[in-house]
Write a structure and sequence with these properties.
mainly alpha; Glycerol uptake facilitator protein
Length: 195
């Protein structure tokens, strides 16, 4: 029974993260640049403050926080399913964002460039969350606009955009792999020496 409640909480907090990132993506699709990327930061800030489970915010801490690989997979799957569902709901709120989302999804492909853009996003997400853990919100408030202005790829934001466009692309798995690789690389290069 204990495990049931543990996994229920894991799923609930992962769905909540999907909602918050969804709100950030919605405003980005609605108003675009230059203000949208800064308002998108509300999503990651909310995830960190509320202690929600966002794949891109957790994967860089896999070793440090002793996160079980199975738990991380559950977080990713729930983020993706709920993110897509929230995207579909957001498309019903404002029809104008649908064409913006369709254009974005059409430009994603299974390429090295797309993967490397995902890696770079993973690096920024790890650093944003690490800076938050060390007591400053500036990593989030500047890191989120940074990855958006640079055109880097965030797997959970991307799946929400896919939901808005009512489209699905397997690039999402390449993006998640890139986010993971970037976050782990950043952890390896930037973590504190505990010795």
């Amino acid at each position: 029974m204990k495990k049931f409640w543990y996994y229920l909480d894991l799923v609930r907090l992962s769905a909540g993260a999907g909602l918050l990132i969804g709100l950030g993506d919605f405003i980005l699709l609605k108003i675009g640049e230059p203000l949208g990327p800064f308002l998108f930061a509300f999503g990651l800030l909310g995830v960190c403050v509320l202690g929600l489970n966002l794949f891109t915010g957790k994967c860089g801490f896999l070793v440090e926080d002793r996160i079980k690989v199975w738990d991380l997979i559950i977080i990713l799957v729930v983020n993706l399913i709920c993110g897509y569902a929230f995207g579909v709901i957001f498309s019903l709120l404002d029809i104008a964002i649908v064409s913006v989302a369709e254009t974005k999804v059409a430009n994603w492909d299974m390429s090295l460039e797309f993967f490397l853009k995902s890696v770079m996003c993973g690096i920024i997400m790890y650093l944003a969350v690490e800076l938050y853990r060390r007591g400053t919100k500036l990593g989030i408030l500047l890191g989120v606009p940074l990855f958006i202005f640079c055109g880097f790829q965030h797997s959970i934001a991307n799946v929400i955009t896919m939901g808005v466009a009512a489209d699905f692309s397997w690039t999402i798995l390449l993006c998640a792999a890139g986010n993971f690789a970037g976050a782990i690389a950043a952890w390896g290069l930037c973590r504190k020496n505990t010795k």
